[in-house]
TrEMBL record:
Native source species: Dipteronia dyeriana
Gene3D superfamilies: Cytochrome P450
Cofactor requirement: heme
Gene Ontology CC annotations of this record: membrane
GO molecular function annotation: heme binding; iron ion binding; monooxygenase activity; oxidoreductase activity, acting on paired donors, with incorporation or reduction of molecular oxygen
Keywords, alphabetical: Heme, Iron, Membrane, Metal-binding, Monooxygenase, Oxidoreductase, Transmembrane, Transmembrane helix
SUPFAM superfamilies for this protein: Cytochrome P450
Family the UniProt entry places it in: Belongs to the cytochrome P450 family.
Membrane topology note: Single-pass membrane protein
Localization per record: Membrane
Name used for this protein in its record: Cytochrome P450
Pfam families: p450
InterPro entries referenced in this protein's UniProt entry, alphabetically: CYP450_71D (IPR052306), Cyt_P450 (IPR001128), Cyt_P450_E_grp-I (IPR002401), Cyt_P450_sf (IPR036396)
Length: 122
């Protein structure tokens, strides 16, 4: 259930974001039509050519992470925001909150498929 649930949730969010952003949907559709030249069957051989769709997937994964809370265990003592965190402590990283922090991202609440264009962030 866990694997299919996260995959289906990711697809639902991606389709939802494209429906709310017709320009993104039209651009993604045009790219798929161009790359596969209206072939009846789409195969894996040319998926690497879908550059814009990759940006849509990156943006969707960033804005709607399938696992927004990531559990970790400290391998060495550290200090975070003035709190001493001893080795072996269990911490939960809120990936979603990091992704929408306006101190680090421009318009983080907006779906912008071009956000990661020419970016080293994967």
């Amino acid at each position: 259930m866990g694997v299919t649930d996260t995959s289906s949730s990711t697809l639902e969010w991606a389709v939802s974001e494209m429906l709310k952003n017709p320009r993104v949907l039209e651009k993604a559709q045009a790219e798929v039509r161009h790359v596969f030249n209206r072939k009846e069957n789409v195969d894996e051989a040319r998926l690497h050519e879908l550059e814009y769709l990759k940006l849509v997937i990156k943006e969707n994964s960033w804005l709607h992470p399938s696992t927004p809370l990531i559990p970790r265990e400290c391998i060495k003592s550290c200090k975070i925001d003035g709190y001493d965190i001893p080795v072996g402590s269990k911490v939960i990283v809120n990936a979603w909150a990091i992704g929408i922090d306006p101190n680090y991202w421009t318009e983080p609440e907006n779906f912008s498929s071009e956000r990661f264009h020419s970016s080293s962030i994967n």
